[in-house]
Amino acid sequence: MDVAQFSRGREVKPLQHGGEKPSTIVAGPSRDTTIMLIEASNLSYAYREAGQSHSVLQDVSAAIAAGERVALLGRSGSGKSTLLNLLGGIDHPTSGQVTLNGEPMGLLREPALTHFRRRHIGYVYQRFNLVPTLTAAENIALPLDLAGVSRKEQDAEVLRWLDAVGLAGRGNTFPDLLSGGEQQRVAIARALIHRPALVLADEPTGSLDAQTGEQVLELLFNRAGDDQQALLVVTHSDDVAARADRVLVLEDGHLRNNGEEPPA
Ligand SMILES: Nc1ncnc2c1ncn2[C@@H]1O[C@H](COP(=O)(O)OP(=O)(O)OP(=O)(O)O)[C@@H](O)[C@H]1O
C-alpha cells in the first residue's frame, strides 16, 4: 500500500457525482444513468441445516450511489444482517453478484478479498465490537495500521478523529471504561478513518438509550456524508429511517420496495 496514496483517500476512486447527491431514486441496478457505487444483482442466499436447504434471501437486487444514505428495514429474521454481510463481502451469496467500485467481489480470492474489504468498507456493529485489549486510540487506528500507514500519520489522524467524535483526551482509555455511546463513537471513527467508499452499519443504535442513540446517529450520518460515502444502515428504528435518503424493506427474503423516500 502506498501510504501517500492511501492518505489522499481511496486507492480506487469511487464513481463521482460532482459532489452532488444523486437526484435520481434508483429501483434496482442500472435502471437509469446514475452511476452506482455498489450493485447487488439477483442475490440469493441459503444455508444448510440437518441436511436441508433453508432460503434466507431470494433474487434481491439493489444499488446504492456514492453519497447516498439508505436504511434497510424488515422484521426480525427477514434477512437484513445476511444481506449486509453479502454486500460487505463477509459472506458469499448462493447465487448472484455484488459489485463494489466496479469490482465483482465474488471473483476476489483471499487475501485479496480481505484487502479489498478493508480498504473500501467500514463496518459499525450493534455491540461496537471494539478490541478490548486496545485503547480507544489504538482501536481507531486499526484500519490505518492494517494498511501500513506510518505511525506519525496514524497518530495525527487519530487525534483528529477523537476530536471529531467528541472524545478528545480519551484516547488512552480502554473500551470497558467507556460508556456504550462512547464506545460506538470510537467504532464510528474506526469505520471512517480510512475513508472507505461504503459504510455498513448493523443496528448501530440498538444497544443504546434513545438520547445516546440519537447523538450517535447524528454523528454517523454527518460524518459519513463528509467524504461522499455511501451509508447502508440496518435498523428497526423509524427515526433512523427518517434520516435516510431512501428506504429498502426486506420481507420474507425479498425486497418489498426499492427506492421509496423515507417516512416524513
Ligand atoms: N448460516 C446460517 N445458519 C443458520 N441460520 C442462518 C444462517 N444465516 C442466516 N440464518 C437465519 O436466517 C434468518 C435471517 O437472519 P438475519 O440475521 O439476516 O435476520 P435479520 O433480519 O437481521 O434479523 P434481526 O432483525 O433479528 O437481527 C434467521 O432466521 C437466521 O437464523
UniProtKB/TrEMBL annotation:
Region entry Disordered, spans: 1-24
Taxonomic superkingdom: Bacteria
InterPro entries: AAA+_ATPase (IPR003593), ABC_transporter-like_ATP-bd (IPR003439), ABC_transporter-like_CS (IPR017871), ABC_transpr_LolD-like (IPR015854), MacB-like_ATP-bd (IPR017911), P-loop_NTPase (IPR027417)
SMART domains: AAA
Bias (Basic and acidic residues): 8-20
Keyword Secreted (UniProt): no
ABC transporter domain segment(s): 38-264
Protein name per UniProt: Putative ABC transport system ATP-binding protein
